[in-house]
Amino acid sequence: MSHRIRLSLLALALVATPALAQTGEAASSGVKREVVGNRTSENIPAIPAELIERLNRYQNTRGAAVAGWTKDGCLLVSTRFAETAQAHRVCQPLGMREQLTFYPEPVAGLATAPARAARSGFVFSKDKGGDEFSQLYWFDDASREISLLTDGKRNQNNGALFSPDGARMAYSSTARNGTDTDIWVRDVASGTAKPVVTEGGSWSAQDFSPDGKQLLVVKYVSAAESYPGVVDLETGKLRMFPVDGGKAAFGGFEFAPDGRAVYFVSDEPLDGKAQEFQTLRYHDPATGKLEVLSRQIPWDVDGFTVADDGRHLAYVTNEDGISKLHVLALPSHKEVKLPELPVGVFGAGTFSPDGKRLALSINSATSPSDAYVIDLDSAKLVRWTRSEVGGLDASKFVSPSLVRYPTFDEVDGKKRTIPAFYYKPANVPAGKKLPVVINIHGGPEGQSFPTFSPNAQFMANELGVAMLVPNVRGSSGYGKTYLSLDNAEKREDSVKDIGALLDWIAQQPELDASRVGVVGGSYGGYMTLATLMHYSDRVRAGIDLVGISDFATFLTNTESYRRDLRRAEYGDERTPEMQKVFAEISPARHADRIRSRLFVAQGKNDPRVPYTEAEQIVKAVRANGQPVWYLLYDDEGHGFRKKGNSDWFGAASILFWQQNLLN
């Protein structure tokens, strides 16, 4: 299936009894540094007990995400009951969640063995401290034993995929040279594994043929460019498929039940005409037949899955940030009647081994992710998990509205508009102007969805702060052209979209344009810094989480297996042309223009955006006399996945807004 701040007693104890360690450098520069366990904080005041208490219930919400069906008809789900997300089993609607894994690090990439497999269990991945050098592990249902499947070294292993009979398992790995992501296949019985695709670049396994002898694969270059192929596992031969138009995006490949035809998602040209969106397609090489199954829907297909019994296919469209589920009968491709589903965001789901039920996770702005099951014969929807919302009254949660605001350029003679989700506090007194926080997604090819956010709910209900969540140019979900509008030298055009949003805020009678903050993570962290660089006179404060501060140093220091993928989006820092662009747009080079209050947070083990990106912007802004809050976790990577860490950062963020946006 194809995307908070919480509070723990541990975080409360840490706040109450900090261990102070002040280095000579920090003391001489007037920086107040505290080191508490794995947390280092600079210039962050003590968090008031009253704020911790107010946040407590919001930070104790949780969700459940469907991972697959077990052989005995239970659901494998990912959820968090302690510090991190772990694997759980649920065997009936609203039944007990039985925890199966118990690690201080979160587990991810859950993949259940097929019903035909000789052994029942599942595979999961786990890294150390957020370093993303994830290893694969096998959980055996019969013995409850866990065994390491990969070499345990400093490489990345992901995307476990079983053959229909469970005899083979494919996965992606950087084990060969640490840079290229190859495809490996493991013989489950013997435990031997070998690479089957070593062409260089970033590859992933998509689907085994019904007889297990062939493997569909895709080479990913960028959000707009992928190349599909098929590997004959007996001969080792890789055959690439022709790509209409020479270059296109692909969003998945699976064999049809007959093992000859394929289903896939692509934006390849149709009848010689370029396509804006990725559609679901069926192709039979023997007859040359190509059928576009989602032709009538002018939005991207986000994902699909074919039932093991070959009788149904489910796919999900992303329609202005809202998911729509479709199920087709095979081989007729006729739509199957479905029950009414909650408005929200979900993936293509996973069929039960007998093909009669479809499980999926549904997330909405007012409800965390939960597991639901559709009975296809009766068209009945049954909820299997009901996740906690900290004892809060969910009826008081705020649902965002979708707004579109004009930006600086035009399309067909009319102002281009940018979509944004608008969380507005309820029952606002007449004449009261609301402070507002702009929340910018990462990626940059990502997309913000109207999903459940305890942070947005706390801001609206407890602080009376509005939140705007824009999908600026370069976001996915709005067509191929929109996706490419911020590439390389056009990078700052997306920042101008935030400038246009500031103009829109100033025109709204209920919003206070003099009290605006901005927050973002990863690429959104760069957008936060760039917004402060260009609009410090209009933005009071910003929070940068694991953000890029200088594209040249970022591309030089990001892990080698990511470097070419990021160059395809941002540009190549080795060329004089892009060196000049990066010098102009990188916030660390223009820190003197950042006059707003700044909070920077980072994980020490981040392989994507190295912690040096955070430290150089903190140093540069402080050098101009501007105070900066700085938070560094030694046991985190690209974002904070441990509850205690996330809770403390969330509380510090709220305190930052209180002091720098509301006061």
TrEMBL record:
Q: Which GO terms describe its molecular function?
A: serine-type endopeptidase activity
Q: A Pfam family this protein belongs to?
A: PD40
SUPFAM superfamilies for this protein = alpha/beta-Hydrolases, DPP6 N-terminal domain-like
Q: Which UniProt keywords apply?
A: Hydrolase, Protease, Serine protease, Signal
Extent of the signal sequence: 1-21
Asked if the record carries the keyword Protease, the reply is yes
InterPro entries, A to Z: 6-blade_b-propeller_TolB-like, AB_hydrolase_fold, Peptidase_S9_cat, Peptidase_S9A, WD40
Report domain Peptidase S9 prolyl oligopeptidase catalytic positions. Answer: 451-660
One of the GO biological process terms: proteolysis
Query: What PANTHER family is this protein classified in?
Result: DIPEPTIDYL PEPTIDASE FAMILY MEMBER 6, SERINE PEPTIDASE S9 FAMILY MEMBER
Q: What is this protein called?
A: S9 family peptidase
Q: Native species of this protein?
A: Pseudoxanthomonas helianthi
